[in-house]
Amino acid sequence: MPTLDKVSVDLTVVLGTTSMPIHQVLRLSRGAIIELDATEADEVKILANNMPIASGVVLVDRNRIAVEVKQMLTRSPDRR
Which residue numbers delimit the Flagellar motor switch protein FliN-like C-terminal domain (predicted)? Predict the structure, then answer.
């Protein structure tokens, strides 16, 4: 397994999305609130190197935020 120790994977959790004009994006400042098309009860998408691999839910325990994987997505033969 020493070879795998050097492999880097970029993990992303998508909580929701939104759409806004570029002039609004340029006016965003620190502390700005961006409304998403999701609620806290919705599932999140989990991406590895920008490829969807799973879905899950957000868990909050005091000051810690985690993501629990609920379902691994099947891979198509062309993504192997």
Answer: 4-73
